[in-house]
């Protein structure tokens, strides 16, 4: 019997590949009529913590498109992945034709495309199959994109005029007015970023449906807006939280971290980690160190060396932390704190000694923290993280604020803002001492786990998506 093949194309990078792989596994576990090919467009970022290409199985196949320096040069902060994706269309076309169209064992059913890979819908159209968008951010964020795109195209609003203003916007996917200062950086970019970002919403409208890595109980306002018939939006399927919960690799560094956590009291440790691209200037690092020392809380701090200015490389490891930390900091805090490089984030958040998470509020990290029931201190850096931070602090009450309108130009390694130690210390104290926030996060943890069980909202939504494929 032929299986119905779904072609998944994630954006490059582990933060997009991981939820794609986990969604594919969920779908395959639910319906044995399905098979999946994940096409991975590689980058030359040299992330040594990249786990490499996963191993293919009978129904889940991984095919890489290699990258050279000329292809890498197509990616830049202005156009982001647009030219890179366009360049790879020929490779995708050939992969699909040779591995699926000419196969006797599978039938091409649909493309499932990451938000930054919507150009590949043109290839799906050539093969006469529908495209779905896999939106790896939240429902409220998706609603914001649709709303701002509609206001631009139908009412002539120019959202870039709001940059650096104190105005607030009424966005139907949010309960509270949204300050312009927390809108995603690309939305406010007058040099073409805003047009590119909002044009994505038009591409989403052309799809057969949108799969969202969220769950109804977390974002009820956003999900209800997206499902409303008046919004002219394709069917949406909130299927989250989609997480990779497999155990961290048992290497010596991970073992050292987990051993240290084992020796700390329950819910006593503040974990600071800022994602695969997160790093700070030396001046900012010193302010964080002063705040941690003054707070007197136990801490585990993932500290990475910034990329060179003008580079899009990922942060590297420090060879010697003392070159960037205040003199004597490591010695003075050795009984209560530990500074590390890369961190096995899910394993750390799952540990009972961790009581708070100072986070950049990337969506994957947000869902992991909710799943583990660890409250957040919000310190967003780039992309849509400011909007996520506003949602966590103001809409949901499961995060304390450090600075929700903080911005850094991560793509260029430029840091124009510095948050003072007093502000950081205040955020950490609220994170660790606000019992109402901690209880709200515990309630959301239970809701996140119920959503994916049989009878839960996300479990049902995955079934609805499979039915929608009409296989």
UniProtKB/TrEMBL annotation:
Q: What role does this protein play?
A: May glycosylate diterpenes or flavonols in leaves.
Q: Which UniProt keywords apply?
A: Glycosyltransferase, Transferase
Record-linked InterPro entries = UDP-glycosyltransf_plant (IPR050481), UDP_glucos_trans (IPR002213), UDP_glycos_trans_CS (IPR035595)
For this protein, the record's CDD domains field holds:
GT1_Gtf-like
Q: Which family does it belong to?
A: Belongs to the UDP-glycosyltransferase family.
This protein is called Glycosyltransferase
Give the matching Pfam families: UDPGT (PF00201)
EC number(s) on record? Answer: 2.4.1.-
Which GO molecular function annotations are given, in alphabetical order? UDP-glucosyltransferase activity
Q: What class of enzyme is it?
A: transferase
